[in-house]
Amino acid sequence: MSPIPEGYAPLTRKAPNTEGNSDLEMRLRQELAALSKRLHECNQRVEEQMRERDIVREQHDALRRYIEISFGLADEEAGSRPKESKPEDGAADETKSQTTGSQQVRLPLLVRQVEAVLSEVRPNGLHYREILSRLEKRGVPVPGSNPGANLLAHITRFPQLFERIGKGCYRLR
Asked: 95: which of 32, 40, 45, 112 fits an S-S bond (Cβ 3.0–4.6 Å)?
């Protein structure tokens, strides 16, 4: 026998007679209507929670992508890891980390992508706007309200990798 749901009082069966059957039928129909209403309310709450979950998931994924691009780090709690960029020619990506003195520094994804763009035009350099354009063509978003300024901030944080060769122009060292 299945357990009785909370708040549900089982009806006792009366001897078959016309009056009792109509009373029983009426009570059963009322109970069915009440359960239908509760079921509908539960379904609405589930749908609302699913919408909230989808919104939270989108915010989570957007923040994770922003962190990957800006800092090269992923949300360890979520079990996600930053995706490593693969150069077009299939060569190994040697830009994952750089050694500075006795310390190893992990490069942000955006910096690794800039390094890949500039390696294609080596030994020449590019203006930061052209770098930005090539990153966009590769599908690499540069976050911020001013992507150009953000790109320059990333480039100038790594003088061991990038050399300024003119106004707004950079190349690999």
From this structure: 112
Residue 72's pLDDT is 60
Considering only CA atoms, which of 169, 167, 67, 82 is closest in space to residue 118? Answer: 169
Rg (CA), the chain: 31
Place of tokens 């009373």: 23
Region class of 61: left (phi > 0), else alpha (psi between -120 and 50), else beta:
alpha
Residue 91 Cα to chain centre, angstroms: 28
Low-confidence ranges of the chain (pLDDT < 50): 74-97, 99-104
Place of tokens 């490069």: 107
- Smallest Cα–Cα separation from 137: which of 145, 129, 149, 146? 129
Strand partners of residue 169? 127, 166
- Please enumerate in sequence order all residues whose Cβ is within 8 A of that of 85, keeping only pairs 6 or more positions apart, or say none: 93, 95, 109, 112, 113, 116
pLDDT tens per residue, range 55-71: 888 888 888 777 777 76
- For 110-150, the DSSP string reads HHHHHHHHHHHTTTS-EEHHHHHHHHHHTT----SSSHHHH
Cis, bond preceding 10 (omega within 30 deg of 0): no
Nearest of 136, 122, 138 to residue 87 by alpha carbon: 138
